[in-house]
Amino acid sequence: MHGLSVRKGFNGRGLGSFVIDWCADLVSALDRRFVRLGCDARNTKLCAYYESLGFVRVGIAPTPEHGDYIDSLYERSAD
To answer: What are the mean pLDDT values of the chain's consecutive 10-residue runs (79 residues total)?
Structure first.
């Protein structure tokens, strides 16, 4: 997944989790095992949100080409 956002005023309605679940269904239908995503490791609120949706942090990857950005890598079973 890449670039998921919810327009201001529509947050808190479950749209993000709906889209993520839809992606997981598609991934499963394609006979794949995981939904994977990444976010800035310093964004603790977003990391906690993904973890609340069942994602598990599987790694951290510094990306020097993007300055001080550190990618927190997550995955969740598509089942």
So the answer is: 85 93 94 94 95 96 86 94
- Amino acid, single-letter form, for residue 5: S
CB 71, CB 47: distance < 8 Å: no
CA gyration radius for the chain? 13
Distance, CA of 58 to CA of 49 (rounded, Å): 15
Residue entry with tokens 């994977």: 36
Tell the burial category of 53 from Cβ atoms under 10 Å away from its Cβ (0-12, 13-18, 19+).
Answer: middle
Distance CA 15, CA 4 (A): 10
